[in-house]
Write a structure and sequence with these properties.
TATA-Binding Protein, 6 strands, alpha+beta
Amino acid sequence: MKQPYILLVPALLFLGLASGCETMSHRQVTDARSAVELRSFQTRAFDTTDSLKTLRSVIATLQDLSFVIDEADATLGSVSATKLDGYEMRFTVTVRPRGQSQLLVRTNAQLGLKAIEDPQLYQAFFASLEKSMFLAAHAID
């Protein structure tokens, strides 16, 4: 009578482990998909190769949005800024070449230590950046 229980325990243990592996796999796929989706909100390609002018437009846009520039490095193509408005929001922007005729601008925003995943924040930044780059390209003040 004890033999069926001996076989039942390993079978249940195996099923529990197998279902745990499936859950982990599904979670990893979901996390990877959300990471790709987040990256798509954070990144835009611009039809220019002038990284210095683009960095200047990034700085002007961040300042227009009430950020204080903490660091800007033209060699690395990065700008970091902070906005203190009852909370601390940190914004980091990198600019790098994409092919022969474009620059890729990628942003990353944090509220305290938590990454911001709201696409509207990134869309608002890129809308302002596009206007700034248009005005700079057409020498409009």
